[in-house]
Design brief:
Structural class: alpha/beta
Strand content: 15-25%
Number of strands: 9
Number of helices: 7
Distance between the termini: 53 Å
Bound molecules: zinc ion
Mean pLDDT: 90
Largest sheet: 7 strands, mixed
Low-confidence stretches: 1-20
Shape: globular
Number of domains: 1
Radius of gyration: 23 Å
Length: 282
């Protein structure tokens, strides 16, 4: 029990005494144990603190229309391959379904999915859906692969692992009209800030140089510009505000594990809801 307390570093007891039932009495003196107060685990370690952000449950006169896009999954578009050989298209399908379901249960939202089940809609079809509905906001979900990875072999899966680059990022495009760019930016900031407030770690963007510009005031939010090497069509072409949320790093062992947990999916949904409501309220 004492060792348990020491591990927790939470018990304010007098100096450690040796207890023994041994008739020979206490054994040789032991060195005082070193108590390491590691504090709370940080994301993405197990049980890192997450906060379910409060969301106003009253439904507005008209519910906010939110299109949730499971990134990739058009024909032959599988996205990245994660460390357990999980395909990005399957991971985003699962996260998107859970997010849309939770948003619809909260009250203020009418959430639709841009991709469901076995369907393989093109990105053009998703754009049409978003604009014809029209959606008040589009959140496209992805996972990321970053940095230099080491080989990771697990059964028949030969993949890569990198535990040094965890975290979420939110991407938006500054191409198009200033009015639309401003909406995308505010949406990205609101979602970024809510995810950080909920305890998710924002990716610092060290591998994004030349692809996206970071936003130091809202760490985790990134701008995709015309002069960048990779212009993201879905972000720049939609006439309704859209952002991409890279939920996590698909090569990070712990972060992939966290995203398999119900707690993470729940907290994520409330953070996205908070971000959306903050954006709509502006
Ligand atoms: Zn992707």
């Amino acid at each position: 029990m004492r060792w348990f307390c020491l591990l927790l570093a939470a018990c304010a007891e007098p100096p450690f005494e040796i207890e023994t039932d041994d008739p020979r009495g206490p054994g040789p003196a032991v060195l005082a144990p070193v108590i390491v107060d590691a504090g709370a685990p940080t994301w993405p370690r197990a049980l890192a603190p997450l906060v379910q952000l409060p969301v106003a449950v009253e439904a507005p006169k008209r519910k906010w229309r939110v299109l949730i896009d499971a990134g990739h999954g058009a024909k032959d578009n599988h996205g990245n391959t994660g460390l357990h050989c999980q395909r990005e298209r399957d991971v985003t399908l699962s996260i998107a379904f859970g997010l849309a379901t939770r948003l619809n249960l909260m009250g203020p939202f009418e959430a639709r999915l841009a991709r469901e089940d076995e369907a393989e809609p093109s990105y053009q079809a998703r754009k049409v859906l978003a604009e014809v509905w029209p959606a008040d906001a589009v959140v496209s979900l992805h996972t990321d692969v970053r940095g230099e990875a080491k080989p990771f072999i697990e059964g028949s899966c030969m993949s890569w692992r990198n535990d040094a680059r965890p975290g979420f990022s939110v991407l938006w495009s500054d191409e198009g009209t200033a009015a639309l760019g401003s909406k995308r930016q505010r949406l990205s900031w609101a979602i970024t800030d809510a995810l950080s407030a909920a305890g998710f770690k924002a990716y610092d963007g060290v591998d994004y140089v030349g692809l996206y510009d970071s936003e130091p005031e809202h760490v985790g939010s990134f701008i995709n510009r015309r002069n960048h090497g990779k212009r993201i069509w879905f972000l720049r072409s939609l006439e309704v505000p859209a952002v991409i949320v890279e939920t996590h790093h698909a090569l990070d062992f712990d972060e992939v594990e966290r995203w398999s947990e119900m707690r993470t999916r729940n907290v994520f949904a409330y953070a996205i809801a908070k971000g959306l409501l903050d954006y709509f309220a502006e």
